[in-house]
């Protein structure tokens, strides 16, 4: 009886291995056809679903939800390299409203440009208050921020 169980277990292992080997080409082909850019919400939420409609409404109201924060040791709002970095990245944004997004970024902001916009209309905040608000929004204890 034990011999029959052992033979059955060996046969089951061989069948399992054979099935996996037969399925392997299909798995590899299927995996190679998957798009690499899976971070795009619209790629995995079909049109017409309530979740996608809510997401599109969110983006329409608040803008895209992608954010990249870049800094380095010793970076301050007055650092000239910050404006150089901002200008370099800004080249990869759309040229005009309504253009198909040609580059990598929809919008580029830096701590300095956000500070300027907080001091301009309609907010017209004093510099000290704007710096404090900027520091709080990035959950940072320092007043010299770059992003």
Tell me about this structure.
- By secondary structure, the protein is an all-alpha fold.
- It has a domain at 67-147.
- The chain is 54% helix and 0% strand.
- The chain has 6 helices and no strands.
- It has helices at 2-32, 41-44, 50-62, 80-90, 111-119, 127-137.
- The protein is elongated and about 90 Å long.
- The model is unreliable at 142-147 (pLDDT under 50).
Keywords:
single chain; disordered C terminus; mainly alpha; 0% strand
Outline the secondary-structure elements.
Layout: H1 2-32, H2 41-44, H3 50-62, H4 80-90, H5 111-119, H6 127-137
Distance between the termini: 72 Å
In this structure, how is the largest beta sheet organized? none
β-strand number:
0
Total helical elements: 6
Low-confidence stretches: 142-147
The proportion of strand residues reads under 5%
Rg of Cα set: 27 Å
Order of helices and strands: HHHHHH
The coarse overall form would be elongated
Helical proportion?
A: 40-55%
What is the structural class? mainly alpha
- Give the averaged pLDDT, no decimals: 79
